[in-house]
Amino acid sequence: MSTQREIKRLKGEKDIVIVAHNYQMGDIQDIADFVGDSFGLAQKVNELEVSNVVFCGVDFMAESAAILNPDKRVILPDLKAECPMAEMVDIGDLRSYKEKNPEAAVVSYVNTNAETKAESDICCTSSNAVKVVKSLDNEKVLFLPDKNLGNYIKRFVHDKQVEVWEGYCATHDNILPEEVRRSMEEHPEAEVVVHPECRPEVVDIADYVESTAGILERAKKTASDEMIIGTEKEMGYRLEKEVPDKEYYFPGNPTCQNMKKITPEKVLNSLKSLSPKVKVEEDIAERARRPLQKMVDLGRGK
Ligand code: 13P
Ligand code: SF4
User: Fold this and answer.
1) Closest of 294, 222, 277, 289 to residue 79, by C-alpha
2) What is 175-249's CATH number, 3.40.50.10800, 3.20.20.70, 3.10.50.40, 2.60.40.650?
3) Whose CA is nearest to atom 3 of ligand 2?
4) Of 4, 140, 148, 205, whose CB is crowded by the most CB atoms within 10 A?
5) For the chain, which residues make up each domain, given as ranges?
6) Which CATH number fits domain 3-83+259-280: 3.30.1330.60, 3.30.300.130, 3.40.50.10800, 3.40.50.2000?
């Protein structure tokens, strides 16, 4: 029996759901019950009445789902699928910042590890980062770890002092403005939509700045027949599947190698063994749950 068919069969027999991020390879997206952005998947796993969730994404996404759902077994088919940006916060540096700036609210992007979340007041994703920062009473805010998303937030928040950590996502930061401009010259009618993890010079020339779910929504809404997309290339699979009547261009062809570590074979092994389970130390999970839940309760929006 083919791997895909075996996965479908096992899924039907067990109390299990497969969720996948928009950057997963096409054959993973095809076997998933739900495909979405980080916010959508966090929300979906919360709603599911199921004992086991196979999370096809990277570590911080599965970890967040496990923290929010201590009653569910969350399985990441390859524990080495790690987001490098999530490791760009030194916990000692964060603690000493907090000691020196007790009046500042700490907002952490979900692309952080559980220990960083446990030190934070609230989390956010790219779909609600501006809304989260605006929702705070504090005049001073530390945003971490993505400097590009942090600087994007600063464009919309003028009544607060927003300090930004020095982290970044190499996949998005390597999308260069000159590559985007070249694509714009080749496709002058195309709408340009980029992820807020892109550098400011790329955000400046985009028509829209959206999370991966927001990019899909733009594709559904726009009258344009062509789109230049500034994000990970596998987003193209989702776009072509859901909105096939357009042409999509990905300047620089950005790839997140960690997202590609999840393969159908590893998913099949996970379905058979219900492992590897994502584990978070209980006291850290306890403290990280509140900022994550606050983010989910606040919802999407700018
Ligand atoms: P989204 O929340 O927009 O899906 O982005 C997650 C991510 O890792 C972007 O690099
Ligand atoms: Fe992390 Fe960047 Fe990959 Fe997203 S694309 S998971 S931020 S490395």
Assistant:
1) 277
2) 3.40.50.10800
3) 256
4) 148
5) 3-83+259-280, 85-168+283-299, 175-249
6) 3.40.50.10800
Cβ 111 under 6 angstroms from ligand 1: yes
Question: What CATH number is given for 85-168+283-299 in this structure?
Answer: 3.40.50.10800
Which atom of ligand 1 lies closest to the CA of 169?
10
Q: Supply the angle between the helices 59-68 and 38-47 in degrees, to the nearest 10.
A: 30
Q: Whose CA is nearest to atom 5 of ligand 2?
A: 256
**From the alpha carbon of 38, which atom of ligand 1 is closest?**
2
- Encoded amino acid at 184, one letter: M
- How is the beta sheet containing 73-75 ordered, strand by strand? 34-36, 16-21, 52-56, 73-75
What's the pLDDT tens digit per position in 187-203?
999 999 999 999 999 99
Q: How many Å lie between the centroid of ligand 2 and the Cα of residue 174?
A: 12
Per-residue pLDDT reduced to its tens digit, 238-253: 999 999 999 999 999 9
Q: How far apart are CA 130 and CA 135, in angstroms?
A: 9
Q: Are 205 and 219 in contact (CB under 8 A)?
A: no
Q: Is 22 in the pocket of ligand 1 (CB under 6 A)?
A: yes
Residue-wise pLDDT tens digits, 47-90:
999 999 999 999 999 999 999 999 999 999 999 999 999 999 99
> Is any ligand 1 atom within 6 A of the Cβ of residue 270?
no
Name the pTM for this structure: 0.97
Ligand 2 centroid to Cα of residue 168, in Å, is: 9
Q: For residue 77, give the nearest of 260, 213, 288 by alpha carbon.
A: 260
